[in-house]
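Risk register update: the risk of archive-format incompatibility is retired. Evidence:
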Amino acid sequence: EVPPVVLIHGNTVTHADFIASRLMDRLARTHRVIAFDRPGFGHSTRPRDRLWTPSAQADLLVAAFERLSIERPVVVGHSMGTMVAMAMALDHPENVHSLVLMGGYFYPSLRVDALLTAPVALPVLGDVMRYTVTAITARLMLRNTAQSMFAPREVPGNFFPTISREMMLRPVQLRANAEDAAFMVPAAGAMSKRYAELDLPVTLIAGEDDVVVDPQAHSVRLHDELPDSGLFVVPGVGHMVHYAALDRVANAIDAPLNAVSLDHFTSMTKDDLTLGQKPEMSRQ
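Archived output:
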C-alpha cells in the first residue's frame, strides 16, 4: 500500500512553498499529499495557550492525522519543518512511516536570526514591534531573505506570486517566525539526545551551498549518527533544495534507504542537476 505524504514547511514561507516548488504536484502523481500550514503561518492561528515548540506543533499535526484519516504517512520536512517532523517521529513513532528531512537543523548552534528576532516573540513589546518597526523591516528585507535562501541560485519568478508577500508579512506570522527561531536551539539540544531512539527510515537531503543551515554540521553529522540513514548532498544548490531536486525527494519517499555516498553524489554536475539527469550511482 502506498503511504500518504505529509509536507511540513520551514520558517518565513507557508505550505504554498511546496506548490511553488512543484513538489506537491510531483508527489501527487503517486501519493495522497497533505501540506499543512504550521501554527501561525498562512491563514492559521497561533494561540498563546502554549509554547509552540516543535513537539507542540508535532502533537497538533498528529491530532490532525486522525481527523483527516492520515495513516502512518511519510513525513517530509524542510528547515524548521524538519524539527517538527523529527519531534513527530520521536514522540509519536507509531504514526510515522518514514522521514525525509531537507535542509534540516538538528544540533544546537549559534543562530543570529534567533538573537535578532527574539524580542518580536515577546508579549506587548513584540506586539508593538510586529505592527510597526518589524513590519517595515521585514518588508524591506524580504527579498534579501529569499535570495539568501535560494543562493547560489536566483529566486524563482513564481516564488513571491505563489506564496504571497503579504501573507509572509502578517503580524502573526512574524511572531511565529520569531518564536520558532527562539525555540530552535533549545529544541535541537533536547532532541539531539534522543536521535538514537529513531527506528524508522530516515533520508537526509541538503544543498551543498546552503548558507542558512550548514549541511556538514547538521545533515552530514546526523547521517554519521544514524548509520542506516540515507544522505544526498546536492551540488550547486542552497537551502531551498527541494526546488532543484524534485525527483530526488520523490525517490527518497519511495525508496527511503536507497542511499548513496557523499562522494558519489557530489560528482554530479550542475548541468546534470539542471537538466534533471541522473548519474550512475552505486548503493552504499
